[in-house]
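Re-running the complex after MR caught last week's input typo. The corrected sequence lines follow. Everything else is unchanged.
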Amino acid sequence: MWVEFIGFLAAFLSTAAFVPQAYKIYKEKTAKGVSLTMYLVMLSGVLSWEVYGLMIGKWPVILANLISASILLFIIYVKIKYKD
Amino acid sequence: MWVEFIGFLAAFLSTAAFVPQAYKIYKEKTAKGVSLTMYLVMLSGVLSWEVYGLMIGKWPVILANLISASILLFIIYVKIKYKD
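Corrected-run output:
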């Protein structure tokens, strides 16, 4: 019970964390200080977690990483678009 | 077997991802474009994963999140130090 709650909390926080970064980039119209390598490696990681989630059939893992992947793709898109 | 490999790969990638960002900040001596909120929320998430790992007794989770927490603390420290 507690284990599941902590796991849910962890998944929520580590997914939600990318939102303020995406918002900052959107607001400032630049992604200059953000490392493209970080976001590409993180996207690979998140997609691996997605495969892992599908393999073990845990929907919180599947859902959290699907949301993370969307936000990461947005950051990567903007980073490439702004060429900075 | 495959499940464990994918889980290990996912943990490795999502931990290693923070290294290029930390390096970029170190090299450029600024963390201006990086969202402090993101790193504070991510640290809370990683610490929750740490507790989760301890609860389920999975050392890859414990180890990966311990490393992530160290890199995140470095980024947060530099962000606050550079006041930007």
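None of the earlier attempt is carried over here. The longest helix of chain B spans residues 59-81. The helical segments of chain B are 2-16, 18-28, 36-56, 59-81.
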